[in-house]
Specification:
CATH superfamily: START domain
Strand content: 35-45%
Structural class: alpha+beta
Largest sheet: 7 strands, antiparallel
Protein name: DUF2505 domain-containing protein
CATH architecture: 2-Layer Sandwich
Organism: Rhodococcus tukisamuensis
CATH topology: Alpha-D-Glucose-1,6-Bisphosphate, Chain A, domain 4
Number of domains: 1
Number of helices: 4
Length: about 170
């Protein structure tokens, strides 16, 4: 059974400013360096007219993983993520995300929403993680959900700092 992940972050900057960052190459390159971790890399980074399609690979070191995960999948957990953002229309933009974990029958997917929030804006994520393993799948889903939430919070802090210094 899949585990739902809900996350949101508010920014003091306008939806236009946040969207410009989220669909800009400079933002993504800086974010990968700052939050990506050792060995993080792009599979691709395609920036269009107010859109972006990104694939990146990151690893969670084995020493940061609980034993239930390293028993099933020894070594670092290598995660390939995609994120897309569409154009801004009517004060709103939507996107999608996916992630897969090498060597583990696990998948994450969901939607992203950028919307106006008073004078600022909010980015929301609504997704799910599913691990197709009898008996222990739910426990691993919980661990992955925790790790994803921690990563999202780190990305939120980076984005807030980026917006403060680039808008």
């Amino acid at each position: 059974m899949a585990r739902r992940i809900l996350h949101s972050c508010s920014y003091r900057q306008s939806v236009d400013q946040v969207h410009r960052a989220l669909t800009g190459e400079q933002y993504w390159r800086a974010r990968l360096v700052e939050v990506g971790g050792d060995g993080a890399s792009f599979g691709h980074l395609t920036v269009g007219d107010g859109t972006v399609d990104v694939e990146l690979t990151q690893a969670i070191p084995a020493e940061h993983l609980p034993s239930i995960v390293t028993t099933v999948r020894p070594g670092d957990l290598v995660i390939t993520r995609t994120e897309t953002w569409g154009p801004l229309a009517g004060g709103r933009a939507t996107g999608t995300f996916t992630a897969r974990v090498d060597g583990v029958p696990a998948a994450l997917s969901g939607t992203l929403t950028l919307s106006t929030d008073g004078d600022g804006s909010t980015v929301g994520l609504d997704g799910q993680v599913e691990v197709k393993m009898p008996l222990i799948g739910g426990k691993i889903e919980s661990v992955i959900a925790e790790q994803v939430t921690e990563l999202l919070e780190n990305e939120d802090r980076f984005t807030a700092g980026w917006l403060s210094s680039h808008t």
